[in-house]
Amino acid sequence: MLISSKCAATKTALFAVGISMQKEKICKEAVWFLSNITAGNKQQVQAVIDAGLLPKIVENLSKGEFQTQKEAAWAVSNLSISGTSEQVAALVQCGVIPPFCNLLDCKDSQVINVSTSAIFRHE
């Protein structure tokens, strides 16, 4: 589900609340939603950055329950495809590499594939 870039800033701001929630189900759904936005165009990726959500994605990648980490991995991978080099650099500056690499130890082959493809996409 991709939304127009006009709506992206509003939607990402609304989901900033969800991604900060303590209830794991709500947080997972908010991160899933952000993974859909980061699969969009560069303006949609920028809306996520402008809303200050990259640190929250990284936080959920490192400290969330596994299903939330999985959604955060998709958000990172999608950003690495859809984003500019500067946008990917912003994600790296938020400390995404260590928690992303930690997912390589999991038993879920899909998560491993998503993680490795994103890591090697921007060498």
Automatic annotation (TrEMBL):
Keywords: Protein transport, Transport
Family annotation (SUPFAM superfamilies): ARM repeat (SSF48371)
The protein's name: Karyopherin alpha 3
Keyword Secreted: no
A Pfam match: Arm
InterPro entries: ARM-like, ARM-type_fold, Armadillo
GO BP term, example: protein transport
Species whose genome carries this gene: Danaus plexippus plexippus
Family: Belongs to the importin alpha family.
